[in-house]
Amino acid sequence: MTHIRAPRGTIDVFPEKPGIWQRLEETVRSVCRNAGYTEIRTPIFEHTELFQRGVGESTDIVEKEMYTFLDKGERSITLRPEGTAPVVRAYLEHKMWAGPQPVKVYYIGPMFRYERPQLGRLRQHTQFGVEALGASSPALDAEVISILISVYQHLGLSGFVVRLNSIGCSECRPRYKESLVNLLSEHVDELCADCRRRLRRNPLRVLDCKNERCAILAKELPPIFEYLCEDCSRHFGGVTECLKALDLVYELDPTIVRGLDYYTKTVFEVVHSGLGAQDALGGGGRYDGLAEELGGTQTPGVGFAAGIERAVQVLQDAGDKETSTDAGEVTVFIAAMGDEAKIEAFRITHALRKQGISTDIDYLDRSLRAQMKYADRQGVKTVVIIGEDELKGDYVIVRDMVTGEQTRVPFGDLIKILTQNTILSKDLKLPREK
Q1: Which pTM does this prediction carry?
Q2: What is the pLDDT of residues 139-184, one digit of tens each?
């Protein structure tokens, strides 16, 4: 019988790796909370219409990449491919617009896209992101960019670049689109099949096509900055002014348009050379028309999303070996011989855990020697040994696995000694049950 393997485009995160994941997630939460963002958790699946209307039917996500199915009620359901549309849906559904504005939230969770798996790009991938709704200030655009950069800086990452652009609004963007169509129509035979289709539906997407010939043509096109209306131009100037105030280095890149139809005005990406062609560590922008597209009133919004798998890959390539304090490392191991001693070990183990000491015992009926060997392999610093002699004498043997020194400790003093050794403040004793 053949083994069942994980679906293509998914990964298992093994015990030796979650340390980096946890540190990254803890950093995201810390940086976001420090900026006044609170966590939101939306469903992993939504009604398909949410993404058709919100993300855009002409996007690659909706046309090619969504995991969509009919549920038992014959309703079309889609696994969440991105996080912004669900957050805006929640903002509208729960009348968050009626409270203090702006509403600032962050999220961490899995997303699903059916695309060709490659380095840093999976069919199930994990994203963290922020969304700020209810304010149109360019300072808020700069804030979300600074949050993304701050996460990476707190993780010790460097060597990334912010690529910045504006794609205008409903007033000025049509003029630019018309110009693109006129110019590209002269080279339509040179475009890839996707861009020939995009030319009439969303010509901006030609600008960020990865096809070599399309990329060459895109560089010859005029930048959108020449077409921006007064409001968009003023807004973009405000964004760059705020980034300069924060000493954040950026590059203007007119080919950054992002792949989702809801974007307006500011768009950006943070890239890193260590990822090769797929170099984006995260990106986002402003989406002032999305709430209205989903049935609400016009509500300004801005945010970003970033892939955790990509960030972890860059951190690992940079030599990151740190683990989280929540990595499951055992501080104390109770090695017991005999049925009565095992019950005593079980009781002590749970008493130590209540005092915040990570403790474990043997569950495989191994010999004392095998238990000691196991504890050593797990990197345990302290082993408590309990056998028949120790039970009769009302004491335990505490062994320092680093120095090899052993100390006889009365049962009643065990908790006190171990809590002191692990720098815990509580001075409690565990009286031995008679």
Answers
A1: 0.83
A2: 999 999 999 999 999 998 887 788 999 999 989 988 988 888 888 8
What pLDDT does 194 receive?
Answer: 81
Write a three-state SS string for the chain: CCCCCCCCCCCCCCCCCHHHHHHHHHHHHHHHHHCCCEECCCCCEEEHHHHHHHCCCCCHHHHHHCCEEECCCCCEEEECCCCHHHHHHHHHHCCHHHCCCCEEEEEEEEEECCCCCECCECCEEEEEEEEEECCCCHHHHHHHHHHHHHHHHHCCCCCEEEEEEECCCCCCHHHHHHHHHHHHHHHHHHCCHHHHHHHHHCHHHHHHCCCHHHHHHHHCCCCHHHCCCHHHHHHHHHHHHHHHHCCCCEEECCCCCCCCCCCEEEEEEEEEHHHCCCCEEEEEEECCCHHHHCCCCCCCEEEEEEEHHHHHHHHHHCCCCCCCCCCCCCCEEEEECCHHHHHHHHHHHHHHHHCCCCEEECCCCCCHHHHHHHHHHCCCCEEEEECHHHHHHCEEEEEECCCCCEEEEEHHHHHHHHHHHCCCCCCCCCCCCC
Low-confidence ranges of the chain (pLDDT < 70): 15-18, 119-120, 259, 273-278, 320-328, 421-434
